[in-house]
Amino acid sequence: MVTDKQVRRLHMLINKETTQAAVAAKAGMDPKTALKYRECRKLPSQLISPHEWRTRTDPFGQEWPQIKDFLQNSPGLEAKTIFEHLQRTLEGKYQDGQLRTLQRRIKQWRAIEGPAKEVFFPQIHYPGVLSASDFTHMDDLGITIRGELLKHLLYHFVLTYSNWEHALICYSECFEALAYGFQTSIWELGAVPGRHRTDCLTAAVNKDCNPEKFTARYHGLLRHYGVTPEKTNPASGNENGDVEQRHHRLKRAVEQALLLRGSRDFESRGTYEGFLKNLLRRCNLGREVRLKEELAVMGRLPARRLDDYTPLGVTVSPSSTVRVLENVYSVHSRLIGEDVAIRIYADRIEIWYAQKMLECIPRLIGRGNHKIDYRHIIDWLIRKPGAFANYRYRADMFPSSLFRIAYDALKHQNPMRADKEYLKILKIASGEGESVTQAAIGALLSEQEPFTAQGIEEIIRSGSRIRPATDVSVHEVPLTAYDALLESEVVYA
After folding, report:
1. d(C-alpha 163, C-alpha 308), whole Å
2. Distance from C-alpha of 250 to C-alpha of 163, rounded to nearest angstrom
3. CA nearest 269: which of 156, 171, 373, 189?
4. Do residues 194 and 130 touch, judged by C-beta distance below 8 A?
5. Do 105 and 253 lie in a common domain?
6. Pairing mode, if any, of strands 144-145 and 265-266?
7. Handedness of CA 142, 146, 147, 149 (dihedral sign)
8. Residues 225 and 280 in one domain
């Protein structure tokens, strides 16, 4: 088969050689073939006729008008759905192996005659003009704190021109997390962008029935920094494409850093935060040149940042609890009937009274949850032990599994006095310390002695029978046990 290269060489040799045979020989082709290409003045690839005819009968030719109507009336129909419909209505005519043929045919029709597809228009980004942020879930990376899975999100802030980014750990897409993340990011940056874009976050954007596009709190936050708010259209993640793409790249960078680290477990949340901070610093090193262009035209920070919390005033109920964002938290019974100030942060709730912070409680996620601290109410539970049996929040009265085991042991010994004895143990824990009391419970249980609150108190006072937390006993397992296990599996198989 003659190639284009041979024909090009033929035309180059025509004026150099004296005979046609010599030209053909040096071009590597027959003299008659050389004469043919000399006269037609075309390359072999130019002489090939395009394949514009069918090599076999279209198996869907008879049904194609019906298929076409389906596609025109319902553009979202998949080829597989139509194929299964044809198999049901024309039983035995079409086999499973013909599905791919129909898929190719429909794909070609959509490209030639189908509806127009959505067009994404690349945008020009200018220095210092636009920033964007969003929340992204991190649960799929399997990050743990001392072996316990850390269910969390990242607030992710990006400058669209330089791709400088900043991220912070949070637990929900609330306004407090948005305000804290935005303010911390721009104070870390040291300058203010002209505009800030989010998707339709409920923390920032009102529902369609509201005449105002943005919530008053979010608008006030950005007005404090002189930033113009923007939002994307619903279900249009491409409009916030810079931060969406950075989500993917940041998660991939975290995954690779975790693989290099050799562990996904961290000693504390602070250690994990340091890990993320170092990773982001390395990611931002290659953006310094474009970042300088942005900083040169960005606005200055105000004199101070706004508070990162939402204030709320409530009255402590007779049950010694306060209700905050549809969740219940306990406070000390001394505050019953008093008006207290609540500061709602992204990750915690602070209880203030008389300009003094009395409690700092981890914030509950979601609605209808509760967090009751037995220390707040134990004085009155001791006086009213009959209330313990049907107490709505009784499950919170067991700080750990050992306390629950202690209660069960008391129920087994004397069901009539179990509640009173257990409440006395809780009273001891509130005074002596939960860890010390728990160790005493473990010591008493291991010795299989009669279980009483007085026995717990005696162990704590003596201190001699409490095993140190570092004293761990691991019993050696004989390897023959595994052989016996394998033999039993073979028998059952």
Report:
1. 25
2. 11
3. 171
4. yes
5. no
6. parallel
7. negative
8. yes
φ, ψ dihedrals at 47, nearest 5° = -90, -10
Q: Which residues pair with 170 in a beta bridge?
A: 153
- Both 349 and 423 in one domain: the answer is no
Asked if residue 145 is part of any domain, the answer here is: yes
B/e letters for 360-374, b = 16+ CB within 10 Å, e = fewer, are ebebbeeeeeebbbb
Given the structure tokens 């989500």, which residue do they identify?
247
Find the length of the chain: 493
Phi, psi (rounded to 5 degrees) for 252: -65, -40
Q: Cα–Cα distance between 249 and 245 in angstroms, integer?
A: 6
The tally of domains found in the chain comes to: 5
Per-residue tens of pLDDT for the chain, all 493 residues = 888 898 888 888 887 877 888 888 888 888 888 888 888 888 888 888 776 767 778 899 889 999 999 999 998 899 999 999 999 999 889 999 999 999 999 999 999 988 888 777 777 888 999 999 999 999 999 999 999 999 999 999 999 999 999 999 999 999 999 999 999 999 999 999 999 999 888 888 887 767 788 889 999 999 999 999 998 887 776 667 778 888 999 999 999 999 999 999 999 999 999 999 999 999 999 999 999 999 999 999 999 999 889 999 999 999 999 999 999 999 999 999 999 999 999 989 999 999 999 999 999 988 899 999 999 999 999 999 999 989 999 999 999 888 999 899 888 888 888 899 899 999 999 888 888 888 888 888 777 767 788 888 888 888 655 555 445 555 666 767 667 666 665 444 4
Strand order in the sheet with 327-330: 321-324, 327-330, 370-371
Strand positions, DSSP E, 171-210: 195-198
β-pair partners for 154:
136, 169
CATH number at residue 205: 3.30.420.10
Identify the CA nearest to 364 among candidates 329, 321, 312, 322.
Answer: 329
Residues 197 and 214 in one domain: yes
363 plus 381 within the same structural domain: no
* Pair (214, 358) in one structural domain: no
Spell out the long-range contacts of 9-12 with Cβ–Cβ below 8 A and sequence spacing 24 or more: 10/34, 10/37, 10/38, 11/38
| Same domain, yes or no: 158 and 267 | yes
* 342 and 285 in a common domain: no
Structural domain boundaries, residue 442: 375-462
CA distance 73 to 200: 32
Compute how many other C-beta atoms are within 10 angstroms of the C-beta atom of residue 244.
18
Number of other CB atoms surrounding residue 62 within 10 Å: 10
Three-state DSSP class for residue 491: helix
Instruction: Write phi, then psi, for 94 (nearest 5 degrees).
Output: -115, 135
Task: Tell which residue, 135, 169, 165, has the closest CA to residue 151.
Answer: 169
Q: Are 33 and 9 in contact (CB under 8 A)?
A: no
